[in-house]
Backbone:
């Protein structure tokens, strides 16, 4: 096991390619995901993270270059929060323009490594429910509403939901869940 005080090399990859082809790392095929089903699956995602955070070694990094289960869980909690805001933007702006979010800065500023696992599990439950409620409002032509990420990547509400689902599924694979 390794310390959580070691810096992780930032992930600066543009993961939008997962909308065009299955992820070679986790096997998830985002294009095969029904965007309308993403919200209803969030409670199951939250339950999986609760089980991960109950592990006695949740704070330990298995490898020095990867986050601990706890750090991944904090990231997922923040992803849920960010995507709630992004879907709210999609429903109110045309096109929605997303501010940059640096996950690596968020991990440092949020002190992910020293969070309380039980608190994070509860926060994931809350954020998953909030996002599910927003996704439940996306209907019909709303799925085609456009959005632009700060780096210029274009999404529709549908592809944003697929991208989100990949992110959530991929991180469960990252922690062996």
Residues:
């Amino acid at each position: 096991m390794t310390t959580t005080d070691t810096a992780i090399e930032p992930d600066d990859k543009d993961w939008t390619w997962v909308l065009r082809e299955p992820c070679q790392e986790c096997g998830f095929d985002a294009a095969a995901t029904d965007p309308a089903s993403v919200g209803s699956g969030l409670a199951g995602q939250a339950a999986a993270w609760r089980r991960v955070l109950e592990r006695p070694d949740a704070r330990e990094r298995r490898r020095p270059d990867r986050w601990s289960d706890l750090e991944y869980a904090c990231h997922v909690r923040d992803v849920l929060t960010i995507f709630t805001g992004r879907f709210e933007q999609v429903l109110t702006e045309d096109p929605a323009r997303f501010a940059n979010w640096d996950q690596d800065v968020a991990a440092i500023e949020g002190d992910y490594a020293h969070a309380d696992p039980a608190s994070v599990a509860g926060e994931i439950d809350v954020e998953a429910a909030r996002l599910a409620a927003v996704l439940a409002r996306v209907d019909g032509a709303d799925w085609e509403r456009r959005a632009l990420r700060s780096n210029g990547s274009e999404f529709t509400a549908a592809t944003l939901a697929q991208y989100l689902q990949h992110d959530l599924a991929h991180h469960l694979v990252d922690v062996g869940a």
In short: Strands lie at 96-97, 146-148, 154-156. Helices lie at 42-53, 69-92, 103-109, 117-135, 157-174.
